[in-house]
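#struct-pred
JK: can someone run the complex with manganese (II) ion? inputs below
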Amino acid sequence: MAVRIIRINDIIDEVLVHHPEADISLIQKAYVFSAQSHEGQTRLSGEPYLSHPLEVSYLIAQMGLDSVSVVCGLLHDTVEDTNTSLDDLDELFGEEVADIINGVTKISQISFDKKIDQQAEYIRKMILAMSHDIRVILVKLADRVHNMRTLGYMKPESQKRVARETLDIFAPLAGRLGMGRLKAELEDLAFYYLEPEIYQQIQDGLARKRGEREQYIKEITAMIQEKLASQGLKGEVKGRSKHYFGIYRKMQAQRISLDQVYDLIAFRIILQTLAECYETLGLIHSLWRPVPGRFKDYIGMPKTNQYRSLHTTVIGPYGERMEIQIRTQEMDKIAEEGIAAHWAYKERRQVQQDDNLRFSWLRQIIEWQKDLTNPQDFLNTVRMELYPEDVFVFTPKGEIKELPKGSTPVDFAYAIHSEVGHQCTGAKVNGRMVPLKHELQHGDIVEIITSPSHTPSRDWLQFVKTTRARGRIKQWLKTVERERSITLGREILEREMRKAGLNLGKLLKSGEDLQRVAREMSYVRIDDLLAGVGFGKVSANQVITRLLPKEEQAPVEAEVPSKTVAKATAADRGGIKVKGLDDILINLAHCCNPIPGDAIMGYITRGKGVTIHREECPVLARTESMRHLPAAWDGVAGGRHPVRIQVISVDKPGLLADISVALKQAEANVLKASIETTVDQKGLSWFTIEVTDTTHLAKVLSAIKRVKNVISVNRVMR
Ligand code: MN
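RT: done, structure tokens with the ligand placed:
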């Protein structure tokens, strides 16, 4: 790349274009200071280091930012890379400059490539710095652009890392700030380093058909111009290839090759007034057939990054899809330059305030980052927020809410308030009741129905889209499950202690002894110990042994797992998974004898861990639903399980023998059999047999059914 060397006068000229009244002396002073500070330093390219701040501040000047920003561009690396202190900058250039450089330096000091929590910290700091003064991020973006342009001088492994970071964080951030052109440049530069081969393919592919494409652009442009002229409209028509990364994304999303990407070219029509935009849209649709569902009115409903434009896709003269954007000059400027465009026209302070309002998503992240202590959750939130794949929906009062695509009324409810989310029982979309997992669409009016007694359901985790909703639901479930296991642990201990002559109530009151035991068993608090007992991580006996004075301690009995209360290990859990509880005491209910394949439900017993019942078990139905726990077979269930079946038959001798043969052939062990004759001369027999799962049982049942004289056969509870 032949690069023109930027000199200070280029920067000053550029600043004067946008701000004829700008304070040039401050820029000159910053230039001299930067040159002195970086004296003797070189870039990896071998150039004097000063070339970098010059390039960065030139980019800032091109964005039309104020002279303070341009000064910051010149000074942005002085604190990090030279002996300069923030106090020096404050003294020489004022507080505003020092503040911005402070923000920029803070962002640079955190390394991005390490662990996830550091990444989260990085973004957290960046966002906070940004919220303080948006110019921090604009300077940082300019810095990043120049570093990306000169990335070729870095070591290959550093290239990939920086490129990845650019694609993950900086390009989407530029997008969210509405800086379309900068975003495209960052994406293409990063793409070049991350996927060099695919980049090359696209480049070659585009080069091959350049002539054809130029001819096509000419032709279409002329057709549009003619149509506009026929209605006395004057507009500028541009046609150009999408940027490489945009094409790549399209290839990926639609799983197609470059040759199959038909709309490589996007046309843009730029007009004088808003009314002309809509008029032009009508003309285009009369000229070519619009593709249904592809029209988007970002003028009526601007994106949160202030992007405004009409988008449509039509079937062109050769049966090809053509994307057309229609907008005014001002909209075009904002689409290309985003937040920077706003700067060009306004007073400093006012801009800061306006931007804070305008970029409400930024405020939202700042709000949310307080709640999200888990770095991964925070990163997910930020990533989701940075990508503009959103739907806009409304509250009944007309307040707009922006949610990621695929969001549901539950996401919406949590976006309003955690309590609204927790208590959400139903939702109306555009006045009609919908299921809670209903996918929200652009423009929906969403009304949430709440009930104070309602609580979140684990099922919601299956369909919620926002990390906020997910986090809140998980947090709630965790609290509830912990409370449940504390209660359970308390009950188990109470019962076992009574047998040992101890009083849990008293021990809890003084707390001392239990606290000691908790510590001994590596728990922080007594509640943690109780929860441990409830979960089955420790047994009541282990706790009791530690509470008794040494001489009274019976020789510690080996803990023989009883048949019903087995310490749950993966093997003897019988392949049952209780949602949310990995290590809990499990036993199968004898009332309904669940077997793998049955729909099951856990019940927290008083003192015996969790008993697994069949969902339709009448015993379970009579228990408190507060103590129910969702459970499922884990898919690895082995072994054989007892099942009771009832056979009704014609009362004939030899039938039992026939059924026994059928059972044997179906490979079902018979544990127990009994037979009686009813008053109406029917044979009524019961068998307890062993089967592996419901599939096996079905085979057994149909085998018995085929036995002569058998009228019906059923599985019974007991
Ligand atoms: Mn720099």
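RT: quick notes.
The radius of gyration is 36 Å.
The chain has 31 helices and 20 strands.
JK: thanks, will look after standup
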